[in-house]
Amino acid sequence: MKKKKVSNAAIRRIPRYYRHLEALERKGIARISSAKLAMRMGLTSSQIRHDLASFGEFGQMGYGYSVSELMKEVAGILGMDNCYTAVLVGGGCLGQTLLANFPFARYGIHLSAVYDIAPGMMGKTPFGVAVRYVSDLEADLAIKPADIGILTAPVGSARELAAILENSGVKGIWNFTNDELKLKDPDIVVEDVHLFDSLFSLCCAINERDARKVSNY
Amino acid sequence: MKKKKVSNAAIRRIPRYYRHLEALERKGIARISSAKLAMRMGLTSSQIRHDLASFGEFGQMGYGYSVSELMKEVAGILGMDNCYTAVLVGGGCLGQTLLANFPFARYGIHLSAVYDIAPGMMGKTPFGVAVRYVSDLEADLAIKPADIGILTAPVGSARELAAILENSGVKGIWNFTNDELKLKDPDIVVEDVHLFDSLFSLCCAINERDARKVSNY
Questions:
Q1: What single DSSP character describes residue A145?
Q2: pLDDT in tens, A150-201
Q3: Which residue from B59, B73, B60, B63 is spatially nearest to B21, judged by alpha carbons?
Q4: Is A78 close to B11, i.e. CB distance below 8 A?
Q5: What is the 3-state secondary structure of B95-149?
Q6: Alpha carbon distance B22, A208 (integer Å)
Q7: Calpha distance B195→A193 (Å, rounded)
Q8: What does the alpha-carbon distance between residue B171 and residue B188 come to, in Å, rounded to a whole number?
Q9: What pTM does this model have?
Q10: Over the stretch B146-181, which tens digit does the pLDDT of each residue have?
């Protein structure tokens, strides 16, 4: 079967399907109609059917979708079956929060090491992950490459560390540094988590909302 | 002057202008042409001119834009002049990371308190912010309302806490709980930070990229 191209918009939408299916599974729900899934997700039935059709053929008229089968298919599209390896670069507050809160292994991602500069962290294995000096990053990746670099280092070192990750051949960078990385290879996928942009999109929307309310008087 | 409506797309774009202008100011750059700002931000000159025109009239033909004046204007659109107040609900790892890393005060946001359940946190003032029991949240907000609720509590309590925030009259919720909040008032702005979606958009894009490479052989 020819693989269908997944659009950028769908790439942003698909993880949400997985979250909703996971929640349904936790509740013990085995089948769901596209209408019910749509209502749950705040989408229309036709959007859902269109998206689900692009994942493969699962629904049977009148029977709805099997939650577990659909989850398996969506997991495949999300790359959960690919056993991606990752390194966490920056073991400070933010890095430790990710270690503590994000179940990487549950979703098929193997975090091979945490890199930091603090001598006090060395020899420790927070959440089972070895801590290494960031000065070893380049040499370590030369021996054991990683698919994903997670950048939680301070903004000042972001570009230098991104260059090391790029040269080592990572496929993607999950970037929390609030810096905009300049990579040479356009094929490396960069996903930015810009907390500043997120909070000020919120504030900007509040500001707009309040301005509208005032102008309605 | 009639206030122009700021589109949703612009609301997502404007914080990025502020970040770039701030970086220029740090470097001591006082003026910049739209062409140079565009190159820096990876946009076209005409996109920049269109966006900047909607912020007000700042550029003078041939002189470029004053970085400080433009920053002031953008700050206004982002609501930084409004002295928004916020409460942080959830003083765990993630909440503490935000406290440690996000300069709320520098951007005009007054964080009035952190709410948690851990007795060990009470009486402390991490980064100068008082810690209160989450069971006091409702009563505290009745006396001293907040504009923004920052939800970093565990997913299980997300909806209950969101309802308390909603009933207290917050204008917006910055939601880190990985739950999708169901609010009654559609006017409350919700900004979700879904780390799961972010990481798996990245993985999905890598998966797509690799599938394309294979199919090109």
A1: -
A2: 999 988 899 999 999 999 999 999 999 988 898 999 999 999 999 999 999 9
A3: B73
A4: no
A5: HHHHHHHCCCHHHCCEEEEEEECCHHHCCCCHHHCEEEEHHHHHHHHHHCCCCEE
A6: 22
A7: 8
A8: 5
A9: 0.89
A10: 999 999 998 889 999 999 999 999 999 999 998 889
Cα–Cα dist B80/B72, whole Å = 9
CA distance A216 to B188: 17
Q: Can you read off the two tokens belonging to residue A69?
A: 């089968």
DSSP bridge partners of B31: B66
Q: How far apart are the first and last CA of chain B?
A: 60
Query: What's the distance, CA A159 to chain centroid?
Result: 21
Phi (first) and psi of residue A36, to 5 degrees: -70, -40
Tokens standing for residue A47: 């959007």
How close B108 comes to chain A (CA, Å)? 11
Residue A75: how many CB atoms within 10 A of its CB?
17
Q: Give me the amino acid identity at B10.
A: A
The sign of the dihedral angle between the CA atoms of B168, B174, B178, B184 is positive
Angle between helices B8-26 and B67-77 (to 10 degrees): 140
Over residues B118-134, the mean pLDDT reads: 91
CB contact under 8 A, B187 and A208: no
Substitution target in A41, A88, A201 with the highest count of B β-carbons within 10 Å is A201
Three-class DSSP category at B38: helix
Is A14–B187 a contact, with Cβ atoms under 8 angstroms apart?
Answer: no
CA distance B202 to A12: 9
- Position B12 scores a pLDDT of 87
Please state the ipTM of this predicted complex.
0.91
User: In this structure, what DSSP letter does residue A5 have?
Assistant: P
Place of tokens 């990683």: A146
State the Cα–Cα distance between residues A131 and B134, nearest whole angstrom: 35
Which of A45, A35, A47 shows the shortest CA–CA distance to A10? A47
Tokens of residue B134, six digits: 């989450």
Both tokens of B91, joined, read 């003083």
Give A101's contacts in chain B (Cβ within 8 Å).
93-94, 195
